[in-house]
């Protein structure tokens, strides 16, 4: 069993799937295509009726577009993480059904009737809300990415996992419907908190881990959402049904699922998740804490190890995703020679704050090997760094916040591999 | 302090308290309800209930409720967190971050144990048990003596070794100043060489469709005639099993430790114990139909690493043939 099984298998599967397409697109077909000349069953018989699947799932041919887990990362699957199949998706919205999951005590089942949200601490009136109460506040819609601070974290010491899903798949991007946390805090009243500048909120979930995090009041009053819908429908169980916190641009661990309590406090709790975890150790052994914002980052999703080129030379669409926790993406450059030269990619739409941006480079492939890279820039003027630049500042043991430029080595046969280059 | 955030209008917005509470939604939280949920403990000890616990009591509670994952000495089992050790490793290539070597505040340990542990049975501990467990974790980190007692009153006196090991996010000063501006577009470097390849490591999961994932080639074990086993042989096997006991449990109430439960293992297909994470090597052989019949078991126990290259079992092997026969008999006696 060798290392290259995943890409080999994906390569063969891809080749088989597009074989007919290849023939059809050739300048001249040698023999008439039976898919055209012969009446196919689907063109003659009948398909499913309208109620065959009251809530639909993707068609069986797409059954490889699924979340995947890297077993050796964690002790079990209850306190663990899996990865979004970003190599197989396009556009920017992540379907809930394949959006990565991260649990600390497993995904619990909490019904709307059993749901309670408590606001306490330095507030004028400690309050309890039901789920129905939340739906009576004015609500907003926003698209935001949620990225785990550990996304790409396995790559600090070197190229390790062979696929964009595994190197960059701890991310999803959804349209949330919810109530600003500001509105709910105001309902409880903040006069009791006095000067808000040095105040914090502590947020926790209803699951056994509680996963509590401290958030400075300034952020809590800015853009944090108490969300109950994603992509138009209820949150999935694995994403915190019925209510989760959305903390735009900040690390996913703070997006507390099954949100049950918000406490206004004088200072941070310094909980397990903000001291022993989600702190970034530097080369000299000191560690950064409160590294909340996710810096600008991008990755080519296709071609990539799980999405090899199967059509030979000629027209090629190079595509990927870019995002920044500090604002909108303004530009993405792509290199085919490992960073010697760069060309600016086309953004599918202008970048939006703290949301995924899709980029395309519509090009011709000469069939030669490529060292594919992408480099994002955001509205602050920040340019996504190389891994070497990151290591010079942080060393190899940060675990979190690895936003380095990724390299895919695309070979002449179209297969791609995760590599590091000089 | 909050210089990392852009100056926001949010605070200004709140300067108009007339806005507050104008929907009349929700109801007052009762004191009992707040007491039930507001359990967090801050670094200065705010939130701690009255109580105390000593190291020796903690050792017992820990052995009973924590050691299955964290090890008897808080050294960690398999991939579960190590809670002790790692002193002076934070600047090493592979730092070991434990309560003793890394955690800056004792309150964090108390709070986490109290609210989130034991894994799968959270919020079941009494305050005195939590004090005792935390005292034992400090002891296992060599930070206190065995007569140490932790209580809400002594809590504030304790400073963690790595309390000063943290700085507030300084990326704006150390990184943003370097990584802004118009980037290079042409002739940015002379040469590009591959310095590391993911293919060299073998750590990427195999990619399969959802339908394929659940497929497993499980062979039905051949029905064997049950014959009475020599009690003396079983007794001899029980002695041999002492070598296995630190990692494997058997019979009633057995739990997976560093190794899987072995109840009923003789004649069973390999890799079938619920909740145990097998090595890749074992999983592969299981998929190829490995059954732990007497021949396979004795071959494995004689030379584990030769029989199964890549096994997680660190045991060197049993040299004597009589030991192999005895232990197989002993294991078989748990098949009923």
What would you note in describing this structure?
The complex is a heterodimer of chains A (422) and B (336). Chain A contains 8 helices and 24 strands. Chain A is of the alpha+beta class and 422 residues long. A 5-stranded mixed β-sheet of chain A has the order 5-4-13-8-9. In chain A, strands 6, 7, 10, 11 and 12 form a 5-stranded antiparallel β-sheet that branches. In chain A, strands 19-18-22-23-24 form a 5-stranded antiparallel β-sheet, with no helix packed on it. Chain A is globular. Chain B is built from 13 helices and 5 strands. Chain B is mainly α and 336 residues long. Chain B has a two-stranded antiparallel sheet with strand order 2-3. Among the domains of chain B are: 119 residues, Orthogonal Bundle (Cytochrome Bc1 Complex, Chain D, domain 2), CATH 1.10.760; 110 residues, Orthogonal Bundle (Cytochrome Bc1 Complex, Chain D, domain 2), CATH 1.10.760.10. The N terminus of chain B is likely disordered. At the A-B interface, α1, β1, β4, β5 and α6 of A face α1, β1, α2, α5 and β4 of B. β24 of chain A pairs antiparallel with β5 of chain B.
